[in-house]
Design a protein that fits this description.
mainly alpha, 2 helices, about 90 residues
Length: about 90
């Protein structure tokens, strides 16, 4: 059972993932106010790490092709999930 503002009951089905919109149990990532389903929370965390790695590789002059390709694939997967949930 979940409780909303001031202890009022809020049905689980009323909660939607901030990324894909699916109605399911949600998770919070540290430092983010949005809530995500299990799959999206993993993808959002991965995208944060990939962005950091891409930035670091760019600054150090390393090739980022593989990291960027993985980042794009991740974005496509999240988009497909969001489109299938609506």
């Amino acid at each position: 059972m979940l409780f909303g503002p001031k202890g009022s009951y809020a049905a689980l089905s009323a909660l939607q993932c901030s990324a894909c919109g699916r109605q399911t149990e949600l998770l919070e990532l540290p430092g983010h106010k949005e809530k995500y389903c299990l799959e999206c929370s993993a993808d959002v965390a991965t995208s944060i790490l990939l962005a950091t790695e891409i930035d670091a590789a760019t600054i150090s002059g390393e090739d980022t092709t593989t990291l960027v390709a993985e980042f794009l694939q991740l974005g496509r997967r999240m988009l497909a999930r969001a489109q299938s949930a609506s």
